[in-house]
Amino acid sequence: MKAYQELTKEELLTLKAELNAAYEDAKGKGLKLDMSRGKPAVNQLDMAMDFLDAVNSQSAMKAEDGMDVRNYGGLDGIPEAKKLMADILEVKPENVIVCGNASLTIMYDTVSRAMTHGILGNTPWCKLDHVKFLCPVPGYDRHFGITEHFGIEMINVPMTPEGPDMDLVEKLVSEDPAIKGIWCVPKYSNPQGYSYSDETVRRFAALTPAAPDFRIFWDNAYAIHHLYDDRQDQLLEILSECEKAGHPDMVFEFCSTSKVSFAGSGIAAIASSKANLDDMKKSMTIQTIGYDKINQLRHVRYFKDINGIREHMKKHAAIMRPKFEAVLKVLDEELGGLGIGSWTKPNGGYFISFDAMDGCAKAIVAKCKEAGVTLTGAGATFPYKKDPKDSNIRIAPSFPTPEEMAMATDLFVLCVKMVSVDKLLENK
Amino acid sequence: MKAYQELTKEELLTLKAELNAAYEDAKGKGLKLDMSRGKPAVNQLDMAMDFLDAVNSQSAMKAEDGMDVRNYGGLDGIPEAKKLMADILEVKPENVIVCGNASLTIMYDTVSRAMTHGILGNTPWCKLDHVKFLCPVPGYDRHFGITEHFGIEMINVPMTPEGPDMDLVEKLVSEDPAIKGIWCVPKYSNPQGYSYSDETVRRFAALTPAAPDFRIFWDNAYAIHHLYDDRQDQLLEILSECEKAGHPDMVFEFCSTSKVSFAGSGIAAIASSKANLDDMKKSMTIQTIGYDKINQLRHVRYFKDINGIREHMKKHAAIMRPKFEAVLKVLDEELGGLGIGSWTKPNGGYFISFDAMDGCAKAIVAKCKEAGVTLTGAGATFPYKKDPKDSNIRIAPSFPTPEEMAMATDLFVLCVKMVSVDKLLENK
């Protein structure tokens, strides 16, 4: 296939007519497909139904430390749940607090607490004139939503296949004391599916921030969400790297079982240094008497341990893999060599990232929508929903079936072609 | 029995010797009893074990509106859970958001949000020099903990059997725009077990605050927690009273099922006007994708409806009543007519409030502790843990058995007598 850039105006016009006809056809099919959010599919949920029997009326209701999980108390989480979440993150249980149903809430609360109470004795951020966060882009819209909500200025940092541009991160963080944090999805990043290289993690650990209360917000959302048995990304464990580098307090790490057990009914955890956790607990103990310990117990009784979780995640992978492959097959076959788009091929996580020609993303998403395929809004992967190049589109293959994903991607590539042809014609 | 105030110095000294001997005896018994917190007892928890079977691997997992409760979404709560919580509060489902496992967390988050984002477009409280809350006293230590944590100045307002001193509330609220809220436990108040009279509720609804963002924090924690079938307090519904009085946005109401299903694994809710809820959701939608809908469904499937909850609460009452009665019997028999203490006789809730002679509460709690009976710390029922008279003690009869409660109260009255005698001797 010839790259579109090499086509003459006449060839482009002919192509445009063909594509338009195909698009009218496609619209006639009345598609109604959603690849906008990283939602588990129904068969992923069905697969875990016996999770609901793991704690029942016949169950012993004491935690390992003898605490009755049905009563008040246990701010930290029950010991066996701390162990389970620690094993997911490859940290020690004493560095973990198990919380409620969503890591997003822990992240929001962590920022909120920094606003009102500061971190480890530093000035509360709400008392400062400027608070800034670094945002590797493209990234996770809900991260950016939190910092935007609190009026924190967000600064884009380009992502690479090895992680954020660390030269830039090092420079900004060491120079500007208003920079208080950076949002990271270090493994199978949202939306690109990139995993940070060992060097990137070590450079993070070695950062020398101008702000004493600078923190890395390390959202390890996809720690165990591999797509393949034989192609799995490995991530260096950041807490111990930071400790080795003499910066033990520099990281807040987050994870949850939302995409392991049930979305919305999982358990979430934060991992950090003892000093950070103690600081945090001063507020937590005012905010709650304890999180849902029965649900913590349910997770431990069902999964047993990290090996149980790993086995369970293989079943998720078996469901997810064909969907990713369906998308990638269509992208390869239909767009390969055309020069009008590039995309990632992740080994795990929930997303594929697509980069269209500059200035095309919004139009592509709109065209898809018009024909019944909902994508994440163009721009959503950037702070303030502003993609400076208007090129990035996040594809979330998890919810539809593989067949639906293939259909949706067929439409998607058609829209990419149409919009690209129009873009190229502008300059002819 | 003669009042202690009428005893001569010699009589007091004789009494003191007898009491000391009894106390040494009591210490020898090696008691280890806790009446410090309003924790459900083990048999209350055992009673609800089949709650855990209400959702299991065979259950239909769709909510009434068709939403799959196992997946993301549903910020408000599932419709049937909204209805259930609305019925507990006697409000409309559209005025309710069902949240996570603890009303305490909703209250904390509500104050936190007011600090960082303000209420309905008003200045965020963290930008103000002075923010004050009224605190009916004695009251709930965890309420005061929240406002203290956020540096909000707390002003004591005396409680009466009809509710807070409304003359004072009206005066302060209408004069001082720095007063942004008042903590209320309007039914079976913590710790006195008082319920606000209709007149009190109407006067609340008719308040004309100097601050446009003044809110009544109406913690209806014991809405359905009666001790008797035939002696139940009734509380006027505040949302509709406020609406009638032309102040629809003046209340945030809270409740939970922590003392209905399981403490820590219940569901909590906030009720308020549509304007307030919409305002709140702007932050909530950043903080979470949704609360635990499976646990919401579990509640609805188990209790069915408000009648199911009422029947269940009768079983709780049957367990709680003998404990309250055991305490009250000892108090009546041992302290009646002595003039050294007064106490409340609630029809519901989780506490009995005891007022010792001024300056005696701390010493009584310490003496009890020394002999193996843990009470809520003296002063805990006041802001900053400072009881100006050092007289109030909260008794929490729920956790021990009735027999243990009788034993604990035997020791308690002994300590009250000892400390009172010492106090009276100071002035002889």
From TrEMBL, chains A, B:
Pfam families listed in its UniProt record: Asp_aminotransf
Glycoprotein is among the record's keywords: no
Gene3D superfamilies: Aspartate Aminotransferase, domain 1 (3.90.1150.10), Type I PLP-dependent aspartate aminotransferase-like (Major domain) (3.40.640.10)
InterPro entries (alphabetical): AspAT_Ic (IPR024551), PyrdxlP-dep_Trfase (IPR015424), PyrdxlP-dep_Trfase_major (IPR015421), PyrdxlP-dep_Trfase_small (IPR015422)
GO molecular function: L-aspartate:2-oxoglutarate aminotransferase activity
Keyword annotations from UniProtKB, A to Z: Aminotransferase, Transferase
Name the UniProt record assigns to this protein: Aminotransferase class I/II-fold pyridoxal phosphate-dependent enzyme
Source species of the chain: Waltera intestinalis
Lineage per the UniProt record: Bacteria, Bacillati, Bacillota, Clostridia, Lachnospirales
